Amino acid sequence: QVQLVESGGGLVQTGGSLRLSCAASGSIFSINTMGWYRQAPGKQREWVASITRIGTTAYADSVKGRFTISRDNALNPVYLQMDSLKAEDTAVYYCAASKLLGVPPRRIDYWGQGTQVTVSS
C-alpha cells in the first residue's frame, strides 16, 4: 500500500502562484509514475500533469507553460509549481500514483485526499 498526502493548497489571486507538494509513504518502490489531477465543482476529475521515475513529464494543454511538475529522488516528494493562475484553475487537486510507467498513466493505483486551490479574480 501507498499513502499520499498533499499540501500547499490555498487561496491566491489571479496571476499568482502556488506550489503543491505530495509526500508518499509505504511501498513507494512499486510506484513508477506520479501525477496530479483536479476536480472543479460540477465537473469530472481531469488529468493535469505526470512525471515518471525516469523523469519524463507531460501536461494537459490547459496548464502547459504555466505549471511545472518535478520530483526529488525516487518520486518522493513530487511538486506541482503553478504560475499565472487563472480562475478556471480553481479545483480540488489530487496527487495520484501508478505502478505503470507512462504519461499520462493508464491506471491510477493510489489517490491522495486532495487539497483545495482557489483562484480569485
Draw up the topology in text.
Blueprint (H helix, E strand, L loop, with lengths): L1 E6 L2 E4 L4 E9 L6 E7 L6 E7 L4 E3 L7 E5 L6 E5 L8 E8 L11 E2 L3 E6 L1
Parallel strand pairs: 2-11
Antiparallel strand pairs: 1-3, 3-8, 4-5, 4-9, 5-6, 7-8, 9-10, 9-11
Describe this structure in words.
Helices cover 0% and strands 51% of the residues. It has no helices and 11 strands. Strands 2, 4, 5, 6, 9, 10 and 11 form a 7-stranded mixed beta sheet that branches. A 4-stranded antiparallel beta sheet has the order 1-3-8-7, with no helix packed on it. It is globular.
Along the chain, the helix and strand elements come as: EEEEEEEEEEE
- Runs in which pLDDT lies below 50 for 5 or more consecutive residues are none
How widely separated are the two ends? 40 Å
Give Rg in angstroms: 13 Å
Q: Count the strands? A: 11
What would you say about this model in short?
The chain is mainly beta. It has strands at residues 2-7, 10-13, 18-26, 33-39, 46-52, 57-59, 67-71, 78-82, 91-98, 110-111, 115-120.
From the structure above, extract its key features.
121 residues, mainly beta, 4-stranded antiparallel sheet, single chain, 11 strands
